[in-house]
Specification:
The protein has 126 residues and is mainly alpha-helical. The protein folds into 2 domains: 61 residues, no CATH class; 61 residues. Helix content is 88%, strand content 0%. Helix 2 packs antiparallel against helix 3.
Length: 126
C-alpha cells in the first residue's frame, strides 16, 4: 500500500513535468506551480499549499505572454548594461596598468556577465 502511494505521488510529480516540455510562457509557469501544489499536498504541507494557491490565483489574474516577453527583454537589457560596465572596468584596469590578479578578476566578471547575458537571451527567445 505504501509503495502504491509513493508511485502515485511520483506520477503526479512527473506527469506535469513531461507535459510542461510542450508548453511555454504562462502555461508553463502555471503548470510548474500546480506541480508544486501537488507535491506539497502529497507531503501534507498545508501552509505551502495555501501560499502556492495564492500565487497561482495571482498568476491567473496577472500573467500574460506579453508581460513575460517584456520582462524577459528588460532582463536582457539590464544584462547588456552590466556586461558593458564590466568590459569598461576591464579596459580601464588594463589601461591603468593594474596588476595581473586584478585584471584576471575583472576578466572573470566579464565572463560571468557574458554567460548571464547569453542565458537570459536564450530564455527570452523561448
Amino acid at each position: 500500500m505504501n509503495t502504491t502511494i509513493k508511485a502515485f505521488a511520483l506520477a503526479i510529480v512527473i506527469f506535469p513535468v513531461m507535459c510542461s516540455a510542450q508548453t511555454s510562457g504562462c502555461d508553463a509557469k502555471r503548470e510548474s506551480v500546480e506541480q508544486e501544489i501537488a507535491y506539497a499536498q502529497a507531503h501534507g504541507n498545508a501552509k505551502r499549499v495555501d501560499g502556492l494557491e495564492t500565487a497561482l490565483a495571482q498568476m491567473n489574474a496577472n500573467c500574460s505572454d506579453t508581460v513575460l516577453r517584456s520582462d524577459a527583454q528588460r532582463k536582457v537589457t539590464q544584462a547588456q548594461t552590466k556586461l558593458s560596465e564590466r568590459e569598461r572596468d576591464l579596459s580601464k584596469a588594463k589601461a591603468d596598468g593594474k596588476d595581473a590578479k586584478k585584471i584576471a578578476e575583472r576578466q572573470r566578471k566579464v565572463d560571468e556577465a557574458h554567460a548571464d547575458l547569453e542565458r537570459l537571451q536564450t530564455e527570452a527567445a523561448q
